Amino acid sequence: MIAFTRHLLPVALLCSALSAQASEVLKGDFWVVYHQGALGKNQVFIADGDPTHIVNRPGGAKSLGVYQLYEEPGKPNFTAYDVEIDCAKNRVRIMGAADFRSVFNELRNTKYSSQWQSKPDTWLVQSRDFVCKPTERQAKKMEHLGVMSASQMSKAGPQFFEILNREAAKTAIMQKIDEGFAQMPAK
Amino acid sequence: MNRLFMLALLATLLSGCASLSASSAWKDRPVGELIDFFGVPRQIMVAPAEDMVVLRYVRDSSYVSREAAGTYTGPQSGQLVHAEYWEDVQHSGSCEINVFVNRARLVQKVLTKGRCVAVEMAPAG
Lengths: 187, 125
What we know:
heterodimer, A: 4 helices, 8 strands, globular, B: alpha+beta, four-stranded antiparallel beta sheet, two-stranded antiparallel sheet, rod-shaped
C-alpha cells in the first residue's frame, strides 16, 4: 500500500491540494527544471525536489514527480508525470502520466511509453540530472520556486509564462535596435 | 486670449519638466531596464543625425473633470431657487515618449510631447 501511494505521489500531492476538506495539504519543494516553446505556447516543467518525495524504486532507480504546465489554450492545465531515474545507468523513463483540467477538476490518465528512453527529451534529461547531479542544478539553469502546495505551484505557471513572454518580447526589441544601428553607418 | 496662452505655456513647461526628469532618471542606463519598465514600444526609428535609435511609446493620458454644465434660477415648488448643474467631461490626451539609445545600448535622453504630467516616467524610488 505504501509502495502504491508512493508510486502515485504526484497524483496524491495534487489531489490533496485540490481537496477542499483536506485538513493538511501536502507540500512539495518545487524547481523549474526546463521550459520550452514560444510566445503564447510556452511549457514549463516543474519537479518536486522534496527528498521525502523522491522515492527509491527496486533496482536502485528513483521516482520523481514532474509537472508539465501549458500556456496554450485548449491544453490541460498540466500533466503530472511519474519519472523513473536510474543514476547508475544514466537512464530515464516515464512510469505514469495524467492530465489535469481545472474545468473538470479531475486527473485523467494519458498515454505514455514506459520504455527506458534511448534519446530522452530535454525535459527528461534535465529531470534525470536534477536527481543525479543536484550540485549542478543552477549551472543547468534550474530555478528554485520553493516549498508550496501543488495547487500553488500550478498557479506559478501563468506568472512564469508572463516572464518568458516578456523576455521574448525584449529580445525581439533588442534585435530591432540592432537592425536600426545596422542601417546607419557608424560615425 | 492671454489665459489660453498662459495655459499653453504652462503645458509646454510641464511637458519639458517631464522630459528633463525622465532623461535624468534614465540617462546612461541599459535600454533593457527601460523596456522592462515601459514595455513594447509602438515604434522603433533611427535618428542618423544623432547616430541613435529611438523607441517611441505613446501613453493615453485622457482624464475626466467635473465641470459646471449650467444654472437655473426660478420658481420651483412655490419657491424661488437657484440651482447649478455639473457634469463629468472627458478630455482626451496622450503622451508621446521618445527614448534615444546609443550604440552601447544605453539611454541617452528621453523627450516627451503632449500631456505627460500624469504619466509615470521611471520606477519609484
